[in-house]
Amino acid sequence: METAKSIPLSGEFELFERMAEHEQVVFCNDPSTGLRAIIAIHNTTVGPALGGCRMHPYRSVEEALEDALRLSKGMSYKCAAAGVDFGGGKAVIIGDPKSDKSPELFRAFGQFINSLGGRFYTGTDMGTTMEDFIHASKETHYIVGLPVAYGGGGDSSVPTAAGVLYGIKATNQSLFGKPDLGGRTYAIQGLGKVGSKVAIGLLEEGAHLYVTDISHESLRIIEELASTTSGTVKVVGSEDIYSQEADVFVPCALGGIINDQTIEQFQVKAIAGSANNQLLNETHGRRLQQKGILYAPDYIINSGGLIQVADELYGINHARVLAKTRHIYDAILEVYEMAIKNGISTMEAANMMCDKRIENKRNRNGFFTTAMKPKWAFRK
Ligand code: NAD
To answer: How far apart are CA 303 and CA 349, in angstroms?
Structure first.
């Protein structure tokens, strides 16, 4: 079988074409630890690039590069939408997270991050853990999302859930002319770290919930909690959640759940939840628009966790982070208004809003240089 190491990169001209939208791509190679990583910096107009680090047994360097380029561009949009002082970046480590990790590999990775002098901040993503970044943080300060004991902000599901509740309020405001959560019905898919907190927030306001989860324990906890609130809970099957007649469908489990099959089944006025990559593809955003279902773009409504890690640069303060998640209410309303005004889907409007925000900053800031922001580079 061909390994990532045996497959050559394409010619340099194609590489520059591939990264045409990006500022910088860094290839990191450390034979002594087996580290092979790619760091993609998409855009630093708003601030230094921020994005997690994935570790995955990519089948080729091409595949790893493609992932880094695609995900770093997504981070530019996510940061612009969240209104944080960061641009988009992403790192990928080529390797199997089950067998190829070592403390030394992450320390070597930390040294590469440090060599960028604050142009890129990173932390955990698929295949990497906080433990890995404790090792990396011995070599660099440009790490976010560490455990509380190591000076990080801790559990990001708290601000993520707070942001989802703000997103649902904005959705209700747009649908019903008032943001109140209570008295409405919601169909929640997934009662994990985020979904359970969203469910509790809704129940406390007197909402009526249809819920589903593959974990019976999670369902039992929410049913018990509901009895202490003015809200109600009805458990439904995994597949039945899509066809519940409710005001808002709240996906907090899986990606790709807005697709040809589920769009046929939805009997809701809106979709607003935390799951990543909810639309199977962009055409499904337009299909929702045609069906008259309002869609809160996932990368905006679920940006509470991003707001928390970005805020770490000013020191840890949970109250300030929760206050900042209110920004999500305004961003979602702005997107809904833009979509109506331009006759486009809310996802198209979200991308348009982010392009505009980055462009506005470019006109004011010019090209960002970290040298101008020494307090970020030496925060500890
Ligand atoms: P989690 O793993 O704690 O919870 C997911 C829940 O979904 C679990 O309870 C699981 O049992 C349930 N589930 C899995 N498959 C299911 C199915 N087929 N039907 C019903 N339930 C199912 O994850 P989380 O941290 O709560 O994140 C939920 C979603 O939000 C994910 O898509 C995640 O990527 C996204 N998200 C999370 C954060 C965060 O801060 N945790 C931030 C942004 C986005």
So the answer is: 17
